[in-house]
Amino acid sequence: MAPSQHESIDDEMLIAFLDGELSTEQSRRVEQAINDDVELAAQVERLAQVSELAAQAYRHVLDEPAPEHLVNAVWSNDVGQSEVEVVSLAARRRPTGYLPLAIAASVALVVGGLLGQQFANDSIDSHRLVQADAGVIVAQNPLYIALEQIPSQQHFEAGNGDVILPVMSFQATDGRYCREFEINADHKVSVGVACKQDGRWNTEILLAAGSRPVSRQDVFQPASGYSQTALDAVLDNLWAGVAYDVAEEERLIQRGWR
Amino acid sequence: MPTEVQGDDVDVRHELVSLIPRLRRFGQTLTGNMQDSDDLVQGAIERALKNLKQWKGGTRLDSWMFRIMQNLWIDQCRANKRCGISVPIDELYGLSSEDGRKTTENQLMVRQVEHAIAALPEEQRSLVALVLVEGLSYSEASHILDVPMGTVMSRLARARKTLVMQLLPGDE
User: Fold this and answer.
1) Which of residues 121-140 of B touch A (CB under 8 A)?
2) CA–CA min distance B163, chain A (Å)
3) How big is chain B by its Cα radius of gyration, in Å?
4) Residue A110 in contact with residue A151, Cβ under 8 Å?
């Protein structure tokens, strides 16, 4: 592929554009770039074409009637003993009724535009966050704002290109309100869980998840480095399995998680 | 048969039955062939029924099932020390179709695409299955596979770059 004059628009951005996963502002940037660059437009066309081909793959399977032995398996009463732990991870799901990400991101952009300014020169240092403050997330930290105000599955742009994604909210088994979150800062991804107690957010766990690729030259990223087991152990202790839905979460945001 | 099953389970099981075609499609994208796919779907149904209490109503049953299938498939890969998948030779080359009639150009293209997807590394193939074939969002896929969003994006980008090279060779 010929080098593009839009060095900042890599394949990842193009596919996110095609999949409707970009914010309005990012989409506009990509559209502009495509208008200006014939080669980039051709690349988008190729990527769109294979996406469509892949979407059609195995479609014929949907037309086949469900095999009787599988239907019988569903109605079988001989299911044996329940397995502890087998799918505790799988039970981690989003609340229902979430906004599609593209819309959510544009909402977050507005919020980010208002709140992100003050963090323009202050990248999120997740290690400093826990070590210096013994797990307390100070109110000046963008993460505090995100936990306090941003609905789950909406991106919060915290300045400097840093992005915080609250993943889900739940009431811990001990009654505290808690949120799982993901931080994309300085090309590194961290995941964590924070709970609110006595008006303060504390991190229960914060794990570095590895580097985020920044350009198309980046080689394939291996599986993330963070210990899923550690995160699960924390969640399994705290979480009864029910995440708040959008409406409940909105009420909690209004009430300041009290 | 539904009468043998008591209580709330009935609704979930009805939903599971209606999901079977999509589970089989996901299974075929993951494993490349119908036999392995149906074994995987059956194993996932059994595991889901054993752990039905862990599934909370009002949340997405399809994501939960995809997750269980993905875990089972990875377990099998590890047990067999290989994550390669086998695509039947006639499906691979489109030499015959079930009713013996001449395979159409369209069917040939579909099989080429399926072959190209089958040839992807496992971790890219599962994302193609979830996002491109099943139409889930990056965030949903990130939850099912337990990988960060950045990894979802980089794997999807690499997968599609490979598919472009395989399927649209004249265009590069």
Assistant:
1) 121, 123, 128, 131-133, 135, 137-140
2) 6
3) 18
4) no
Question: Position A204: which residue type?
Answer: E
Q: Taking CB atoms and an 8 Å limit, are A228 and B146 in contact across chains?
A: yes
CB contact under 8 Å between B132 and A51, yes or no, is yes
CA distance B86 to chain A (A): 15
Name the helix (H) or strand (E) containing A224: none
Distances (CA, A) of A69 to A38, A62, A79, B4, B43: 53, 17, 15, 17, 12
Nearest residue on chain B to A92, alpha-carbon basis: B143
User: What is the ipTM metric for this complex?
Assistant: 0.84
Cβ(A190)–Cβ(A141) below 8 Å = no
Give the minimum alpha-carbon distance from A92 to chain B in angstroms, rounded to a whole number: 7
Nearest-by-CA chain B residue for A192: B148
Domains of chain B: 1-86 (1.10.1740.10)
Look at residue B66 and give its three-state secondary structure: helix
- The H or E element spanning position A178 is strand A177-185
Digitized pLDDT (tens) for each residue of chain A, 258 residues in all: 444 445 578 888 999 999 999 999 999 999 999 999 999 999 999 999 999 999 988 888 999 899 999 999 998 876 654 443 332 333 333 333 333 333 344 333 333 333 333 343 344 554 444 433 457 787 777 888 889 988 888 888 877 777 888 888 988 888 899 999 888 777 677 788 899 988 888 888 877 765 443 332 333 233 344 556 677 777 877 887 778 888 888 889 988 998
Which residues between 65 and 104 in chain B have a beta carbon less than 8 angstroms from any beta carbon of chain A? 67-68, 71
The owner of tokens 């939903």 is: B15
